[in-house]
Every structure is written in C-alpha cells, then in structure tokens.
Amino acid sequence: MDQGKIISEYIGAFVDELVRCGITQVVINPGSRSTPLALLMAEHPRMKVWMHVDERSAAFFALGIAKEQKQAVALVCSSGTAVANYMPAVVEAYQSRVPLLVLTADRPHELREVGAPQAIDQIGIFGKFVKLFVEMSAPDAALEMQHYVRTVASRASAVALCGPSGPVHLNFPFREPLLPELNTPALWKGGRDVDACYTQVLTGTRSLARQQIEKIAGQLTKMERGLIICGPHDDPLFAEAAVLLAKQLQYPLLADPLSQVRCGAHDKEWVIDSYDSFLRDSTIMDQLVPEVVIRFGAMPVSKALLLYLKQNPSCRQIIIDEDAGWRDPTLMSSEMIYAGAVPFCRELADLLGSAPPSSPSSLSGWPQQWMKANEAAKQELSRQGKNDFLSEGQVFLELHEYLPAESVLFAGNSMPVRDLDTFFFCNERNIRIMANRGANGIDGVVSTALGVAANRSPLVLVIGDLSFYHDLNGLLAAKLHSLNATIILINNDGGGIFSFLPQSGLPRHFETLFGTPLGLDFKPVVEMYQGSFTQVASWNDFRTALRDGLTSTGLHVLEVRTKREENVRLHREILAAVSRSVRAALSI
Fold first, then answer.
1. 366/361 Cα distance (integer angstroms)
2. φ, ψ at 101 (rounded to 5°)
3. Which candidate among 26, 111, 371, 534 keeps its CA 20 to 30 Å from the CA of 391?
4. Is there a contact between 418 and 33 (Cβ–Cβ < 8 Å)?
C-alpha cells in the first residue's frame, strides 16, 4: 500500500473519531509537516475549519471558541517553533480548565536530534500544563493501527472534557510523502463497523452522601454570620441554585462578575455586587467578621476580598469544587468538598427546610449590615463614577446601562477586569461576562474574545492599550472570518495598573520599567484589518459608537483616551467616598 493511502486511512480514522466524539471545530495554522491533519480535517463534512496564520493568536482563538461552546476544540500546527508558540494559550487553558486538543505534527524519529530543519524536541513540550500527552505512532497500514487511533481519539476527547477540563497534546510524526489520497474508498470508515463512538466514555457528577450533607446543614443552622462567595463559574443553572441556598441560609451572596450571578432574570435580593469597593476599608472589615464562608468556583477577581478572607483566620471556609484541584490561595480552607455545585446547593437548601425564607430587608443584624453597605456603596459608585470627562471606571457604568440582553462582555486583565468588578452591577439582562483568569495574563486577549465572537454575538471586549498591542495579530481572525465584535480600547499610554502599585513611588525609573508608554496610533492597524476605528471625545460619542458597533457587522474599535495619573486620583477619591458612605450607613 502506498504512503498516501496509508496516511489517508490512519488519519482519516482519527479525524472521523474526533467528530463522533463531539469535536467538530478546529483551528489550523498553515504548515507543510501538518498537511495530513490539515487536509483530512478540511475534507471531513462535519468538521468546521478556522484558519489562522499566527500560532500564538490561533491558540487563543481556539481557547475562545472552547470557552464559549464549553466543548473541546482541536488545534493543528506544523513542527518546530510553531508548537512552542502554543504555550501561553495551553497554560491559560490548563489554569482555567478549558478543553483543548492540541495536535502537533513532527519529524519522524530518524530525523530528530540530527539537525533536520524545523525539528525541535516536542516530546512533553507543554510539561505539566496538559492533562495527557501521547506520542502517536507513525501512520501504518495495519488494521489494528486504525483501532489504535480511534481509541486515542476517544480517550483524548474524553480526558480534555472530563473534570477538571483542560488541554491534551497529541504529537504526530509524519514521514514524506505527506499528501493523503482524498479519494480513498471509505475514507472515514477505517477500523469500525458501527455508527456510534468507537469507545464511549461516560462520567458522572461528583456528590456527597446524604449523611454528609445533613451534617453540614445541621452545623450551618447554628452559624448566623455566614457568607456565600461565588467565583468564576459558567453553569447556566448555577445562579438560581446559589441564590436559593443564600435565601435558605439567610447568608449574603458575594457575586464575582465572572460567576454569571450578577446578570439574568433570577432573584438577586441576597446578591452583594459592590463588596470590592468597601472591603478595602479596615474599619468596615472589622465590622463584618464572618463565622463561615461557603465558596464556589475559582477565587474571585477582587484582591480586597482575598485579603478580607485572609484577615479572618478563625472563619470556617468551605470550598465547593466540582473537579479535583486545590483552588485556595488563602491557604485557610477548613473543608474542600468535591461535588457538583448545583446539586450541592439544591440538596443543602432542601435539607434546610421548605419554609419561605425571610427577605433580607426584614432582618436585622448580619444580613442587614451587608445590604446597607452594598446599597450605600452602589449609590456612591454611581454618583462619583460618572463624570463629564472620559474615565476608565465609567466605561463599565455605561456598559451596565447600554449593553443589550444576550450579549457577551469580555474584560481584559490588569485594570479592565478590576473596573468591571467595581463598576458593573447586577441587572436583569442575560449578559455573559468572560475573561482569561486562569493565568491572568494580558497576552492573547483579543484572540480569545474573537474566538468567542466566532459563535456568539454581539460581543464587546474592553481592553487596555498594552494588552491590545500584545495581540494585534489576533485581529486577523476578524478579517478572515468576517466576525462581528466591538472593542473598547482604553488607551492610557502604558501599564495603567502599575500606577496603583508601590513602584509608582519611584519616579526615577518608573516610566521606563513599568509605565512603558508606547505612543502608538492604533488606527492604521485596525484599518489594515478592515475594521473601523473611532476615537471618542465625549460620552455622547461613546454611546453613539457603541450603538453603531452593536448593531452593525464587522470589527469596530472605540478608543477611549485617559491619563494614568488622573485615573489613579479618581479611583482613590471614589473609594474614599464609598468608605465614608458605608461607614455612615453602618453607623461606625
């Protein structure tokens, strides 16, 4: 059998099994050694192919698709440094539990370590940042090798999705000639005689025994000063279940913006959304000392909340994590419970009784303190955060008011995600809020957001100028695939977050090492990718440009120019005003 037919049947069986296992989207980078994978994926009638030229951007683009779809997405590149460029996105996928299937082509074994071109050591190149690595066998004509690739495809797909989800790396050595025979009879039938998955992998939701839930319920009923903290979460059923538990326990629920609890039609009577602004005040923290905290999901964005928890070492901390892992940066968890968040909330709420829970407004003491503090903080943030001049925090106050239902709001790291936490309050619209909070990096944000936009719109990305610069290549995806996205570029000419840090007190080297002003005009770059660019001069301009971006097709970039020093001053003034208002509300 010739090499072309061998490759066709071997890789054809592999690609077909991926599709049968639910992997139907792939992001491909051009290259020669990856020809068998690329051609056969493009040939499969049920595989959607997204082309991208830049490997680093492509990997984040695939990450965005996987985050939005909650399904594994395949990623294909050639050998050599192309593989290494996947590393940042693979790290983010691992840290944020996003399923990716990384398929890398490689030189055959005889061409490794002998100076062959585009050959590096790809074995285990991603280290601990993948859940599974397999060095694939070279294509072979034996029937059992078709069974082998189908088994690996089934296993890899399942491992990527099974909790905790994450990336899987399969490395394919290919010998020349590389061209498959696309007209091979029964191209997708090799190694199988049934229509189902070759190996079906079934998993279930982790749960606690009834007596364990009963024990926890009995203990919690004796603890009045409790909190429920909801970190990043993406189960559409979680918000309603978490709110139900808060009602039954009569515990305030602190909702991170990425928890998906701040937005939607569910009841928000017990939801606290401005805790980040008032937990920075030590006097207020001393007034709000908890006995017990029940935390779901990853650690929230708010550093103030993290410090609040660490400053209460006697507080019992119960962490509910659906998958094995240890997401506790406080290092003070009392119990780590591996169970499904939604069934845990429902079962615990059911055990706490069926009597109608009281409204927080009718209670005194602990819940009322949190409600008063939250309302005072929100009023002050709304009042102090709105100005005639352009400011960074007000971007999120505007989005809170004008984003339509069913839209996606993606926040860049550093200052945008923190301003999102502070200034984007609860609302009744179903707005999905997303960010790359696995490794918290500023690279690949544009590409990840456009990956989300590939399957869902309207999408608004809020990003700083340094992060935007980091991933300008990512804009190519919008042009290649006619994506619709609105990017709000907050341009303070440098790393705005460093102005809030102690380094800003060392002016001699601050701008060179930390401020890093770029002085770039981004308009020509955006227009090169056939996007529209608007530099807004007022909030009326902003609202008009935002409306135009949300209601028209293509890429739209709205630049909001601010000054770093002014931004720091304004944030500090707002937070000081919040502290005064909350102290007055709590009579302290």
1. 11
2. -115, 105
3. 371
4. no
pLDDT, greater one: 356 or 368: 368
User: Would the pLDDT of 50 be above 90?
Assistant: yes
Give 423-448 as a 3 state SS string.
HCCCECCCCEEECCCCCCCCCCHHHH
CB-neighbour burial class of residue 113 (10 A; exposed 0-12, middle 13-18, buried 19+): exposed
pLDDT digits (tens, 9 = 90+) for 9-48: 999 999 999 999 999 999 999 999 999 999 999 999 999 9
Q: What is the pLDDT of residues 72-126, one digit of tens each?
A: 999 999 999 999 999 999 999 999 999 999 999 999 998 888 988 888 999 999 9
d(CA 552, CA 484): 8
Q: Is the pLDDT of residue 512 over 70?
A: yes
**Quick check: do 210-373 and 392-561 share a fold?**
yes
Residue 431: CB atoms within 10 A of its CB come to 22
β-pair partners for 463:
489
Q: Please give the distance of CA 460 from its chain centroid, rounded to a whole number.
A: 14
Pull the structure tokens for residue 505: 């007190």
**pLDDT tens-digit series, residues 149-168:** 999 999 999 999 998 999 99
Fold of the domain spanning 210-373: Rossmann fold (3.40.50)
* Residue ranges covered by each domain of the chain: 3-173, 210-373, 392-561
Q: Does domain 3-173 have CATH number 3.10.270.10?
A: no
In this structure, are residues 77 and 34 in contact, taking their beta carbons and an 8 Å threshold?
Answer: yes
Residues 6+ apart with CB under 8 A from 519: 493
| Residues in CB range of 168: below 8 A, 6 or more apart | 99, 100, 101, 102, 130, 131, 132, 133, 134, 156, 159, 160
Contacts of 271 (CB under 8 A, 6+ apart): 243, 246, 253, 255, 261, 262, 426
**Picking from 224-233, 470-479, 498-507, 550-559, which range would have the lowest pLDDT averaged per residue?**
498-507
3-state SS, residue 212: helix
Task: Write the single-letter amino acid at 56.
Answer: R
H/E stretch holding 223: none
CATH architecture of 392-561: 3-Layer(aba) Sandwich (3.40)
Say if CB 78 and CB 29 are below 8 A apart: yes
